[in-house]
Amino acid sequence: MRLRTILLGLLMAVTVNIFPAWSSLILHSSRMDYAHVSVAFLVPFLALVFINQILVRRGIGLSSSEMIALCCVGLVAATMQGEWLSGYLLGTISSPHYFATPENRWAELLLPHMPNWAILTDQDAIRYFHESIPPDQPIPWGAWAQPVFWWMTLVAALLIGSLSLTTIFRRQWAENEKLAFPVAAGLIELTGEDDRSALNQLFKSRLFWIGFGITFGMIAWNTIGWSVTGWPEIPLLRNRNLRIGRGFQPIMFVVHPMTIAFGYFTKSEVLFSIWFFHVLAILQAGLFNRIGYEIGGADPWGSFHTAIGWQSFGGMIVFVGWGVWVGRHHLRDVFRQAVFREKRVDDSNELMSYRTAFWLFVGCSVYVFLFLHQAGLGLLPSSIFWFGTAVLYLGLARIIVESGLVFIRGPIIAQAFTWHTLGPAVISPEGAIAIGLTQTFFCDAKTLGITALAHVPRLGQTLTAQARRTLGPLVIGGCILGAMAVMWFTLYEAYRGVGAYNFGVISFRGAGGSAAESYQVIAKRLTQTFGTDWKRVSFLGIGGVLTAGMIGLRYWIPGFSIHPIGFAVGASLIMRSSASSIFLVWAIKSIILKLGSLTQYRQYAPLFLGMMAGHTFGIGLGLLVDAILFPGEGHKLNRW
Question: 320 and 565 in contact (C-beta within 8 Å)?
């Protein structure tokens, strides 16, 4: 790999982290940490694609392989910013002392059990971080050095382990099961890796520019209204609620261009199953409300109904387990090749040898266990937590490489799975604190990095063998550099600016889904003595049985169109605002395939790629307008 590619890749990693932090924390403009394909990556990358087309004509542009490498680095590194990592990491390690009050009893219940090496303990550093520091005092960088260092070792282990795992599964998913990888396919088309002339044809397509004009034009139109009183607004991303009845949650109707754009490349049966099971979940939750059935309070970042969330997670466990079973022959070959050095399968086309990937994954898993143990989590809770994390990580990665839907969350979080599977009676106070500290890298039920990393081995197939073997270290190095850059930026702006509490994001507040909310849950749990919550576990089993039945029907009945992906994620909270767009794109795609043909379906693809590009550039335009006219009072154009 050329030196300029490496340097540009590292620059891309820093850009996709600093740029969205500046937008969200300083301008109070669009947040870019919602999707698994982040707008923080798409804005600079698509700008680079357009600029590179001009440079290529002059003979000085980047090659398609170089664009793929930059794409991989930016795609993954963009998951280090905001409420993927930096926001919750800094918020989690700084909030215990700052938000402790006599009313919440944290000083009594939590602080004595905190591992001091894992959190910020300097009282002045904590207070000034949230409230800003006097101009005549230096920023206390040293107070952050120890906790950030140790957490970054864990982040590195998670990223390396995730890349190793997705490398092992790449052949099974892409070649044996022939999953579509729609996100990777779209990015390959935009870089021109398959055919440079095809990229030129895409930019010459009238449908591409129609799609671009629709989404970009709506945002551009609305930005005029920010300065012109009485300017009519196009209600983009505005909720319309379809009410069903008393006790039933309304069906939200939101038109989201990004969901529609990526959804066009998703299998129709997956689209149908997601909105179908979402509607069923609303009806089931409404029925429970009408009869007064409840299994307990909700946990943070779960589904819109507790029982259905656990039911969905049972389905995800079976879905992931079935995927491992289907790939058992490949996984057996990888194991024997790694442990016994038997040459069972050709791994020359992978990012790394299977032996390297296997032992890296094992080593990283052991390090995570040791880290959690040192933080205070016992062997049994660690095993339960790691199992739940593995199911969510591997499950969401598999779902996204098959569906391409970028606004996806798990039905519950691994922390809730651990709490209710064992109960507070089994978990020590130190273990409870350790579970809370895991919010640094796994919150909001969307994983850390693996859903983006899952596309890197597929994208790497377009590179030469030599470039492919250097891609993995470049991606991981870019992530670490990007994470350190955005944390430095956040700390600097907090101390020298208005203070983290005034950034206007939930990461640094004491309630409302903030990092500190996990400590509120822990403090409550430490006063409780219940054991295994068998009601939740029962719904877990129900979901597993139903999913097993669906998988069986798909094998026994040809053409059975209900996909277990829909059952696993259809009730997640984010589906409240995504299901209507998924239904809309399913209807559009079905009409095209019904009235036309597969050829016509492919002919309309530029329209949806143009919608994605137009929406991305529209967000960039809004950010530019906010930076010039409304600094600190920006407008949020991006959401889930």
Answer: no
Q: Model's pTM, two decimal places? A: 0.94
pLDDT score at 195 = 55
CB-based contact 611:289 (threshold 8 Å): no
Report the distance separating Cα 418 and Cα 409, nearest Å.
18
C-alpha span between 413 and 111 (Å, rounded):
24
In a domain, 634, yes or no: no
Total number of residues shown for the chain: 640
H-assigned helices in 24-140: 39-57, 64-77, 86-98, 106-109, 123-131
> How far apart, in whole angstroms, are the C-alpha atoms of residue 335 and residue 389?
22
Number of domains within the chain: 1
Low-confidence ranges of the chain (pLDDT < 70): 192-198, 237, 443-445, 510-514, 640
Do residues 181 and 453 touch, judged by C-beta distance below 8 A? Answer: no
Spatial separation of the C-alpha atoms in residues 53 and 38, rounded to whole Å: 22
Q: How far apart are CA 498 and CA 520, in angstroms?
A: 25
Phi, psi (5° rounding) for residue 222?
-70, -30
* Angle (nearest 5°) at CA 606 between 603 and 608: 110
Nearest to 488 by CA among 40, 141, 73: 141
Q: Is residue 296 helix, strand or coil?
A: coil
Of the candidates 471, 358, 414, 372, the residue with the CA atom closest to the CA atom of residue 75: 471
> What single-letter amino acid sits at 368?
V
Q: Are the beta carbons of 543 and 311 closer than 8 angstroms?
A: yes
| Helix, strand and coil in the chain, % to nearest 5 | 70, 0, 30
Which single residue is written with the structure tokens 């044809």?
201
What dihedral angle (degrees, nearest 10) is formed by the CA atoms of 617, 622, 624, 626? -170
- Count other Cβ atoms within 10 Å, centred on residue 39: 28
In 117-273, which ranges are E strands?
A: 240-242, 251-253
In this structure, is residue 259 part of a structural domain?
A: yes
Residue 260's nearest CA partner among 226, 218, 225 is 218
- Triad 624, 626, 631: Cα angle to 5°: 125
- Cα(161)–Cα(612) distance, integer angstroms: 31
Query: Exposed, middle or buried, 174 (CB in 10 Å: 0-12/13-18/19+)?
Result: middle
Question: Which one, of 292, 289, 302, 285, lies nearest residue 521 by Cα?
Answer: 302
Residue 493 within a domain? yes
Count the alpha carbons within 13 Å of 504 in the hemisphere toward its beta carbon.
19
pLDDT at residue 42, rounded to an integer: 94
Q: Which of 425, 300, 429 is closest to 375 using CA atoms?
A: 429
Which helix (H) or strand (E) is 513 found in, with range? none
Residue where the block lists tokens 């950034």:
503
Which pair of tokens denotes residue 179? 């999953």
578-595: per-residue pLDDT in tens? 899 999 999 999 999 988
Tell me if 281 is assigned to some domain: yes
Supply angle C-alpha 639, 582, 600, rounded to 5: 120
Reading phi first (left if > 0) and then psi (alpha if -120 to 50, else beta), residue 266 is in: beta
Tokens standing for 50?
């357009």
Residue-range definition of the domain harbouring residue 576: 3-629
